[in-house]
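Quick one: structure tokens for this chain, please?
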Amino acid sequence: MAEEQQAEQQSQEPVFGIEKVYVKDLSLEIPNAPHVFLQRETPEVSIELHNAGTAIGEGVYEAVITVTVTSKIEDKTVFLVEVAQAGIFQIRNVPEENIEGILGVTCPNILFPYAREAVSDLVTRAGFAPVLLNPINFEALFLQQKQQQAEQAQAGAVTH
């Protein structure tokens, strides 16, 4: 009887596991090659980041962070790199209200170093100086996103 209770307790404990980490999409564009390699001006680099998480089975989720790096000199694109780094995660026995936070903070924290390496490697292979992405505070981004959603919901409620 004690063994059954212990087994039942263990089966109810929260579970988080990394099933797979993979590159879902990878692209590189150098629209102005070869002339862009003759430029001596320092390009301006901009970085965009998006993340998403979806359920793909019972207790199994896919999280994807997409990093887009654009390098320009004036109005000419030097290069454009986009990496969608994904992972399949097992998340079980976790309250439903906590799943969104895990997919929005924990999973991106795991995936980001892989995306950072893919961006740097691809840019270097393209013949440019590596782009080193700074660490990102996914918790702050998640909280900011939740605040914006709350404000939009409140603004929507006021206008109706």
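The mean pLDDT is 91.
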